[in-house]
Write a structure and sequence with these properties.
By secondary structure, the chain is an alpha+beta fold. It has one domain: GHMP Kinase, N-terminal domain (Ribosomal Protein S5, domain 2), CATH 3.30.230.70. The chain has four helices and nine strands; from the N terminus they run ββββαβαββαββα. A hairpin with a 2-residue loop joins β6 and β7. About 40% of the residues are buried.
Length: about 240
Amino acid sequence: MKVNKMTRISNRKNDELRLVEIIPDFNLFAEGSCLIKCGNTHVICTASVENKLPSWFKNEDQGWITAEYALLPRSTQTRTNRETKGAGGRTHEIQRLIGRSLRAAVDLTMIRGYTITIDCDVIQADGGTRTASITGSFVALCIALNKLFKEQKISSNPVKEYVAAISAGICDKELLLDLEYKEDSAAQVDANFVLTESGKIIEIQGTAEGEPFDKKEFDTLYNLAYKGIKQLILLQKEAINHAKI
């Protein structure tokens, strides 16, 4: 399998991320927020903190983190209808993925009594909206947690480890990092990796279209993804350090 040949639509190397920019404090009112740009995929992520737990939540010894996700109507090439009658199946799946990813990064017992709701609004979609949402959401969450700590509402920072997400796949027998839409839609293998800074796996979603892929190819995809994750985490840290706390 080839990894470094220059064949991509955007003239990137096969193991190269799209241009990524994370702008903290994008929202004036949210406790934590950022705009994340991954190439032509742009997502606004906000973190809202409430000093209460969900009505269904029974464990009062910990807090909760949940997420909502939406594609705005002209984030795509043709207009996407608003989900005014409730989230569809794809949206539910992505929301649950974002929530699981963030909860895995935080000691929930240290935010006892608080609910943090993450909102991810995709304003422009060119592949990788769920991975960009996770990466940006973690920044918004950390900013909100830093504010809680500064205000002495929590005793210490509850983040156990940084978390980010990226896609990797196989197109025309080449292994690629960070697929944009045209690559994603034509890929023989498409996988999303949610990993910690130390390389631990939170979630992997991988699918083959047509021919299955083998363990060697999977290992290479993981290594590509982890390389990208480490680069994203450096950008996350820079954005968090520049946020107004």
